[in-house]
């Protein structure tokens, strides 16, 4: 069974700092990996999707990398801003056909960027 | 304006009562999903549907039921058999396998 772990559980940084969030998974036979953002009491917003054949994806100040062989992904946030404060969730899609598009989620990293 | 809507925002359930959570999407997506989120935890998959008139159990389907009679709608019923229903319920959809999932705003279910 796929297990997804995110470290750290919480992170507090001053504004302007570059930071890295970590995600690890136990089954390397993945179809894709997605990073989401969740604000308190809200739904999830998709940030980046990395297909299993890709090594990284970039969107603005965000860069996500994927290393399937080691079962790891990182989300790099450049020049952090208070508006980046949220919980960041990593989710892995399995490669088996019978799994459809189902995702397995980590528990998230709660990020606070202090002005 | 395309997107996913969930209603109601808050729902209260009495003991022994079945309640139904609504999820509608106008994105023309084939696949739809229901997740449950408990405080401080990641999301857990309840049910998913890859196409109309078809759905599969996720990791925690016991005490829940779904239907997929229309492409745009995927309602979730929380039955009286679900003994710990208090949670935040999130609906999502995607074009198909391996594509980005888009989420609704969620329904918070509380037990009276």
Structural features, described:
Chain A is 0% helix and 58% strand. Chain A contains no helices and eleven strands. In chain A, strands 2, 4, 5, 9, 10 and 11 form a six-stranded mixed β-sheet that branches. In chain A, strands 1-3-8-7-6 form a five-stranded antiparallel β-sheet, with no helix packed on it. In chain A, a hairpin with a 4-residue loop joins β7 and β8 (72-77). Chain B is mostly beta strands. In chain B, 0% of the residues lie in helices and 50% in strands. Chain B has no helices and eleven strands. Chains A and B meet through β4, β5, β9 and β10 of A and β4, β5, β9 and β10 of B.
List the helices and strands and how they pair.
The complex is a heterodimer of chains A (about 120) and B (about 110).
Chain A: E1 4-7, E2 10-14, E3 19-25, E4 30-38, E5 44-51, E6 56-59, E7 62-67, E8 72-77, E9 86-94, E10 103-105, E11 109-114
Parallel strand pairs in A: 2-11
Antiparallel strand pairs in A: 1-3, 3-8, 4-5, 4-9, 6-7, 7-8, 9-10, 9-11
Chain B: E1 4-7, E2 10-13, E3 19-25, E4 31-37, E5 43-51, E6 54-57, E7 64-66, E8 76-78, E9 87-94, E10 102-103, E11 107-111
Parallel strand pairs in B: 2-11
Antiparallel strand pairs in B: 1-3, 3-8, 4-5, 4-9, 5-6, 7-8, 9-10, 9-11
Describe the structure using short key phrases.
heterodimer, A: 115 residues, mainly beta, five-stranded antiparallel β-sheet, B: 112 residues, four-stranded antiparallel β-sheet, 11 strands
Give me a quick take on this structure.
The complex is a heterodimer of chains A (115) and B (112). With 115 residues, chain A is mainly beta.
What is the N-to-C order of secondary-structure elements of chain A (H for helix, E for strand)?
EEEEEEEEEEE
Assign a percent range to the helix content of chain A: under 10%
Compute the number of strand runs of chain A: 11
Described by the principal axes of the CA atoms, the overall outline of chain A is globular
Which parts of chain B are unreliable, with pLDDT below 50 for 5 consecutive residues or more? none
Shape of chain B: globular
User: Could you name the ranges of chain A where pLDDT drops below 50 across 5 or more consecutive residues?
Assistant: none
**Mean of residue pLDDT values of chain A:** 92
Helices and strands of chain A: which structural class?
mainly beta
Helical percent range of chain B?
under 10%
What's the mean pLDDT score of chain B?
92
Secondary structure: number of strands of chain B = 11
Largest sheet descriptor of chain B? 7 strands, mixed
For the terminal residues of chain B, how far apart are their CA atoms? 35 Å
Class of secondary structure makeup of chain B = mainly beta
Assembly state of the chains shown: heterodimer
Largest sheet of chain A: 6 strands, mixed
* Beta-strand share of residues of chain B: over 45%
């Amino acid at each position: 069974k796929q297990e997804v772990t995110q470290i750290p559980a919480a992170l507090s940084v001053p504004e302007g700092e570059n930071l890295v969030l970590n995600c690890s998974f136990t089954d390397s036979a993945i179809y894709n990996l997605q990073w989401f953002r969740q604000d308190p009491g809200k739904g999830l917003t998709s940030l980046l999707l990395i297909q299993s054949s890709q090594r990284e994806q970039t969107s603005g100040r965000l860069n996500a990398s994927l290393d399937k062989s080691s079962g790891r992904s990182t989300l790099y946030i450049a020049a952090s801003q208070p508006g980046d404060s949220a919980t960041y969730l990593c989710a892995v899609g399995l490669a088996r056909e019978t799994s459809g598009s189902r995702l397995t989620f980590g528990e998230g990293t709660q990020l606070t960027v202090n002005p | 304006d395309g997107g996913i809507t969930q209603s109601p925002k808050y729902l209260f359930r009495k003991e022994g009562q079945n309640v139904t959570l609504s999820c509608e999407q106008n994105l023309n997506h084939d696949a739809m999903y229901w997740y449950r989120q408990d405080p401080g935890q990641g999301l857990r998959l309840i049910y998913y549907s890859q196409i109309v008139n078809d759905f599969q159990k996720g990791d925690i389907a016991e005490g829940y039921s779904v239907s997929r009679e229309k492409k745009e709608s995927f309602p979730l019923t929380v039955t009286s058999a679900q003994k710990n229903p208090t949670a935040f319920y999130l609906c999502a959809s995607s074009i198909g396998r391996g594509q980005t999932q888009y989420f609704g705003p969620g329904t918070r279910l509380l037990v009276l």
